[in-house]
From TrEMBL:
The chain crosses the membrane at residues 21-42, 54-73, 109-127, 133-154, 161-180, 192-212, 280-298, 304-324, 345-364, 370-393, 413-431, 437-455. Keywords: Membrane, Transmembrane, Transmembrane helix. This is Uncharacterized protein. It comes from the Bacteria.
């Protein structure tokens, strides 16, 4: 063992037998309390949708989106995630980089594989008939191989290698066809051509070493320090500051001057979106996906599609409303251009409102639900405004609340942090799933107005 490794191991407290038993108890309890009920709920939600005739194109869209999400996540927090002291003392040393970082990669790979296995079990358990045993094994192998492919895409995103990332995203999208065929073959006999996915995954795994060695220690250290700050802010329920840490710094377009005919803050919001094309594209893309799901959400036998559509719309509103968030965070500072804070906030609402309404309504028109797209866009933006205007966490929320089942103040903090998101999810998903198209549109518009008054009351405080 080398000196830096020995020193870091000596600095850490070695867990005793009771510590290991406690960790095992916590892990088992977490699985029983969180994983099993969530898997059971997902099974109940997916069971009514098993009769749907899902085409391979739909599955390919989902797998491609997962590949894009894996690459994007790697740019913020990759699978190779050592701590900052380990990077300074060990990774930056003379030893081979691939060997030093191998344990971290294997740990993340095991986590991704476990998630793929759980997802496969949930989907198979949602069927109302027993599958063919051999076909079930083939499907399990294909799903695990797809998980390995996503793990490599995650690593490529962390390494910021454009060509491997694009190739892996395309391979993830193409894997949708064999996954669809492996699923449909559960009731009959296995289709052996789907084993091309494990072959592709093995080839991708062979490139891991080359991808790891191009990871500069400086980038690993930046990610480690940034994630440490995010964890510190998240512990104190300051999610806005945590998001600021994760948000990339804008360097392009510093000399751009908006000159087209519109209110000055509207022009500044447009230029801000152009200066951050990644965030703007993510917001527009999420809004588009949310609009596409609105048509099936009204006719689906399960509310899970409505839940996904509402969650995507809220995420899109968060990506497109940076000007509103900045205004709320800097309200105590002198006003910009002599505008009152209320007028400033109203002008910052124009660009995200127009983008969300146009994109979501246009995408929802494919399913005949363009009016519902408009209503959901307004509801999501109103909830986003309510979240941005609530200010800092009240100090009294940190007062301990002792109950027979333990201290519960953290639960109150959690509800305070996610109150606007929960309102958007509960109200939006319930209306989309329970009401017909035009009644649901009217209820969504009414809910958007009521949440707007709620946001205004928070602003007035």
């Amino acid at each position: 063992m080398r000196a830096p490794d020995r020193l870091l191991r000596d600095l850490r407290e070695r867990p005793s037998t009771s510590d290991r038993a406690t960790d095992l108890y916590i892990a088992v309890l977490a699985v029983l309390v969180f994983v099993v009920p969530l898997a059971r709920w997902a099974t109940l939600q997916l069971a009514p949708a098993m009769a749907w005739n899902v085409s391979p194109m739909h599955v390919a869209l989902v797998t491609g989106a997962l590949g894009v999400a894996a690459v994007g996540a790697g740019r913020t927090r990759g699978p190779v995630a050592p701590s900052a002291p380990y990077i300074d003392w060990v990774v930056s040393g003379p030893d081979e980089l691939a060997r030093v970082l191998r344990p971290f990669w294997r740990r993340s790979l095991a986590g991704v594989t476990a998630l793929a296995v759980v997802a496969g079990l949930v989907v198979v358990a949602s069927r109302d008939t027993w599958p063919d045993p051999v076909a079930a094994v083939v499907l399990a192998v294909v799903v695990i191989a797809f998980g390995l492919l996503l793990a490599v895409a995650w690593l490529a995103g962390q390494s910021r290698l454009a060509l491997p990332a694009v190739v892996l995203v395309l391979l993830a999208a193409v894997a949708g066809w064999p996954i669809h065929d492996a699923w449909t073959a559960l009731a009959t006999a296995p289709r052996w051509w789907v084993m091309v996915v494990p072959v592709i995954a093995v080839v991708a795994m062979l490139s891991v070493r080359r991808v790891v060695v191009v990871l500069p220690p400086s980038r690993l250290r930046t990610q480690a320090l940034r994630w440490s700050q995010v964890e510190n802010f998240a512990i104190t329920a300051d999610l806005a500051s945590a998001a600021d840490v994760l948000r990339g710094r804008t360097r392009r377009g510093r000399r751009w001057r908006p000159a087209f005919g519109a209110p000055i803050l509207v022009r500044r919001d447009v230029v801000g979106l152009l200066r951050s094309p990644g965030r703007a594209a993510a917001g527009v893309g999420l809004a588009f996906l949310s609009g596409l799901l609105l048509g099936p959400a009204h006719t689906a036998p399960t509310p899970i599609i409505a839940i996904v559509a509402v969650a995507l719309s809220y995420a899109a509103a968060c990506y497109l409303s940076d000007g509103l968030r900045f205004t709320a965070a800097n309200r105590s500072r002198p006003p910009v251009f002599g505008f009152t804070p209320a007028r400033t906030a109203l002008q910052h609402l124009v660009v995200p409102t127009v983008l969300l309404v146009v994109v979501m309504s246009g995408a929802a028109a494919a399913g005949g639900a363009s009016a519902a797209g408009c209503g959901l866009a307004l509801l999501a933006l109103a909830c986003r405004a309510a979240s941005a205007f609530k200010g800092l966490l009240p100090i009294e929320y940190l007062t301990p609340i002792m109950t027979p089942v333990g201290e519960m103040s953290s639960l109150r903090v959690l509800f305070w942090v996610a109150d606007a998101f929960l309102v958007c999810m509960l109200v939006g998903a319930t209306i989309l799933f329970q009401a017909d198209l035009w009644t649901g549109t009217g209820l969504l518009l009414l809910a958007a107005v009521l949440v707007g008054f709620w946001a205004r009351s928070r602003w007035a405080r």
